[in-house]
């Protein structure tokens, strides 16, 4: 009975717990607030963001002010003409991100675009998953390098430059 009360009290809107721990089990969800949308946000990501490639997925990212990590997936029509194939690849990208987003250990926010750039035969889930995991690990490494790079510069700036 107490478990049921804890589950209901920890649930978000609509009675569903999103990404929270319920009785020792973490729910892997991708709620609306974690999806990147809006013309201005997407435009800012592609104009001010940085990018790298882990074949067959290209990652474009931009550090944001808020604590949210938002993601969008892209499969160009130019590379895959059939909507069925594009939708399947987008579903694979979202699934791999959803299951491994806990690897983003930094607390700062980020806007991330995952683009499937390979042409020809679509990759299987294992290939896509390995690429997404590598991307998430690389994002953590980049973020950690950026914060450790800034900290010595701030403490060193007051020494007078001798």
Tell the overall outline.
globular
Mean pLDDT: 82
Low-confidence stretches: 1-18
Number of strands: 6
Question: Helix fraction?
Answer: 40-55%
- Ends apart, CA distance between termini: 67 Å
Sheet with the most strands, sense and barrel status: 4 strands, mixed
Helix-and-strand structural type: alpha+beta
H/E element string? HEEHEEEHEH
Count of discrete alpha- or pi-helical segments spanning 4 or more residues:
4
Proportion of beta-strand residues: 15-25%
* Sheet with most strands: strand arrangement: 3-4-6-5
What is the gyration radius calculated from CA atoms? 19 Å
Task: Describe the structure concisely.
This protein has 162 residues and is α+β, with helices and mostly antiparallel strands.
Overall description:
This protein has 162 residues and is α+β, with helices and mostly antiparallel strands. The chain has helices at residues 2-10, 39-48, 83-100, 125-156; strands at 21-22, 25-26, 50-54, 57-64, 69-74, 109-116. It is built from 4 helices and 6 strands. The protein has a 4-stranded mixed β-sheet, sandwiched between helices.
Task: Provide the fold topology.
Layout: H1 2-10, E1 21-22, E2 25-26, H2 39-48, E3 50-54, E4 57-64, E5 69-74, H3 83-100, E6 109-116, H4 125-156
Parallel strand pairs: 5-6
Antiparallel strand pairs: 1-2, 3-4, 4-6
Helix pairs in contact: 3-4
Please supply descriptive tags for the structure shown above:
162 residues; 6 strands; four-stranded mixed β-sheet; disordered N terminus; globular; alpha+beta
